[in-house]
Please model this.
Amino acid sequence: MSVAAPDPASPRIWLPRRLLLTRSAREWAHGRGIAERAAARGVEVRELPGDRLALDLGDDPKRAYAEAKATLAVVVAPPSKRKLQPIAPSADWRVDLAEGCPAHCGYCYLAGSLKGPPITRVYANLEEIIAGLPAYLGQGTITSRSRTRQHEGTTFEASCYTDPLALEPLTGSLSALIAWFGQWQADAQLRFTTKFADVAPLLPLDHGGRTRMRASINPRGFARFEGGTSPVAARLAALRRMADAGYPIGLTIAPIIAAEGWETAYGELIEQAATALAGADDPDLTVELITHRFNPGSKMVLESWYPGSDLDMTDLNRTTKRTKFGSEKQVYDADTMRRLRTFFEGRIAERLPAARILYWT
Ligand code: SF4
Model:
């Protein structure tokens, strides 16, 4: 599988301090290719005797976090992980190319959903993952059953457990998946959202209009909560390049944080997006609006990873929401939600009139 050269103008290309290559991953050409690309960039590659990710992380939680985040593991996704799950409200199905992310967002939803030290794991058996997708065509129950979104066909979301663009310079997995959807003569769409900006390898692909990229954005003033990601202006410029390359595009405004001054900050953000996308040829723009939420588990993990963060995770303006699986999460209270929603819907209609809001949550 060939991988395009990274964009030399790219503001950030993440390189791990070390790469762990499991025994099973070595049996896949894609896995070996990832290790070779990392080695060519000077990354230390450790070939493991088995599939256990042996790494001495020490007892100091801060150091363990830093060491885990600086580690990329190439592993094989077992059959259980290749069985796709619905992912409301984004897509019919979740397709994972990796698990974990090298960035350091103070609100990261992965803190509540992934267990153990935050080592980023990328999958070597990409061919098997892709080979499993056709069985899900026409089987979707989320967007496929939505009156306003069923025209998207069966949808597959690739950024539930990772930021796939962050890993692309080493893996090439996202490019391969986009190219595969491009030649798949089916009523289907791949979706991914990202806080990174190196889209150069994606621009020349024969995507067939079957992949929608969304830039995940927040006001400049919240950059302190998004360590290791690309600047928002670079994400928007990347999105514009994707629109110009014929991709359907979108904005994920997430997480919406009702901190002091939010109205001005988000007003400027929407303005910034409108400027970046002005004049794009048929931008086919969608918007997804996701408010900040946390649960006791994610709060505990995030407070241990980012002690001293001023991201508000108190009960202020919050209410407890019970999910259909019986767990609880803290979301903004009804009054705060109403004010936020009214603002966003009004401002988007005004500044991005062609945009379709897919959901508010
Ligand atoms: Fe988490 Fe996304 Fe930030 Fe990565 S970029 S740390 S997945 S919120």
